[in-house]
Amino acid sequence: QVQLAESGGGLVQPGGSLRLSCTTSRSIFSANDWGWYRRAPGTHRELVAASTSLGDVSYADFVKGRFTISKDNAKEMVYLEMNSLTPEDTAVYYCNSASGSLRYTWGQGTQVTVSS
Q: Which residues pair with 75 in a beta bridge?
């Protein structure tokens, strides 16, 4: 069974930065597009950024220019560099497949709190 594990969240002041990491438990990395998602309190989970198996990237409008998704194919890891964070970015962040409707079992996520 595929297990996804996110890390790197924390408490940061507005304008600060964080780097999130995601590991997978099986060699399913290269066959999939990968995405970072987030769920803020009282909202639905939404896609933040995605990277295809070929390396093409896309971003939600609300993070464009601030967040960067990247992958390390050798380590089978996905990263999300987050800069210029605002309180509106406060959420639990998850990684998962972004290949069509395929989603593996969601991990625990990593909490990002942006507050002064």
A: none
CA 67 from chain centre, in angstroms, equals 10
Tokens 């009282």, residue located: 42
CA dihedral (11, 43, 93, 50) in degrees, to 10, reads -140
At 101, give phi and psi (nearest 5°): -95, 5
Q: Cα-Cα-Cα-Cα dihedral of 11, 14, 17, 23, to 10°?
A: 50
Average pLDDT, the chain: 94
Interval 8-56: pLDDT, tens: 999 999 999 999 999 987 678 888 899 999 999 999 999 999 999 998 9
Question: SS3 for 4?
Answer: strand
CA–CA distance, 29 with 31 (Å, rounded to integer): 6
The DSSP secondary-structure symbol of 104 reads: P
**Which strand (E) or helix (H) includes residue 68?**
strand 67-72
